[in-house]
Amino acid sequence: MEHGTPSPRRLGGAEAVVIIVVIAVTAALVALVEMPLHLVLQLLAGAGLTAVLVVGLVTGTTTR
């Protein structure tokens, strides 16, 4: 590990809960609703992209 790189931080409680809920909803869509896996993955990708864009706009962060 380089000396100039920051150490990775651990997930907070809210972040961990969001990840667990996303995994649970994904499993429910595939198992209970019998939604095809490729559609669930497209839904997750779209939601992830939307979240990144919204957080970037709200915080004023730009990509490098």
Computed structural class: mainly alpha
Largest sheet: number of strands, sense, barrel closure: none
- Give the helix proportion (percent range): 55-70%
Estimated share of beta-strand residues: under 5%
Task: State the end-to-end distance.
Answer: 22 Å
What form results from the Cα inertia axes? extended
- Taken in chain order, the helices and strands follow as HH
Tell me the total number of β-strands. Answer: 0
Number of helices: 2
- Rounded mean pLDDT score: 82
Which regions are unreliable across 5 or more consecutive residues at pLDDT < 50?
none
Q: Rg to the nearest angstrom?
A: 16 Å
Keywords:
mainly alpha; 2 helices; 64 residues
Overview of this structure, please?
The protein has helices at residues 13-31, 37-59. The chain is mainly alpha-helical and 64 residues long. The radius of gyration is 16 Å and the shape is extended.
Task: Give a quick precis of the structure.
The protein has 64 residues and is mainly alpha-helical. It has two helices and no strands.
List the helices and strands and how they pair.
Blueprint: H1 13-31, H2 37-59
Helix pairs in contact: 1-2
